[in-house]
């Protein structure tokens, strides 16, 4: 059973220089996430270079991640397909491969109407027994899941959560005012992570967590414990790194950060290419500056036992 709360990394997919899955580095990163105390793993999202992955590769990643997590935290598979038929097939394959839940995007490439989007989501939800987090990101995908659409969608009992990425954090409050605990709201924008948690988001689907899992979880746990000033101190340090997530080259940026912390490589799958020139120097400067000033973290894992 998926507990829809906490920090859930949208992990990068690790590749070798020969463009095969790098399961050795994948294992190292997942183990670092688990050790830091994340609350779930999301595979095959935008950061996971989903559009370039073969279905067989997705299934390998699910099975490997299920093996590594040992049932301690849920493994969520992203579904981002061009057709309803394709999305249903992907959802069912993910369930068969052992995923504990799904993150579901609206149809890719085609800008569906509200009615088409609702019908699409319902068809996929009704095709699987897995619990589902909807992904609401009209900035990048040009389709918004409105409150009225969500009202229709919660007729599907397995639609449990939403990744809120409209960039309007007051939407966190609007969703909770209308649906209370029926829909669990996650923030999906790194640079609005702490703010969203403070106003009531129950979780954070994060990007820079891929390289800095402990810092991300520490912010979440401190906010949850109402130790806002301590969380803010870490968040201020983190912000230049978090801004690397809101870029078309977020995958390359975050993979460079993973190299710096020793839990990833720079290899991306074409058509993506590693950064070069002035932009590479700029991103490396952000990462190197952060590494030099990396904060000392409180004992956030035992925060509830501290009086």
From TrEMBL:
Q: Does the keyword Lyase apply?
A: yes
Q: Where is the active site?
A: 135, 163
Q: Which InterPro entries match?
A: Aldolase_TIM (IPR013785), DapA-like (IPR002220)
One Pfam family, short name: DHDPS
Q: Which GO terms describe its molecular function?
A: 4-hydroxy-tetrahydrodipicolinate synthase activity
Tagged with keyword Ligase = no
- What are the record keywords, sorted? Lyase
Q: Where does pyruvate bind?
A: 205
Q: Family per UniProt?
A: Belongs to the DapA family.
Instruction: State what protein this is by name.
Output: Dihydrodipicolinate synthase family protein
Q: What is the lineage of its organism?
A: Bacteria, Pseudomonadati, Bacteroidota, Flavobacteriia, Flavobacteriales
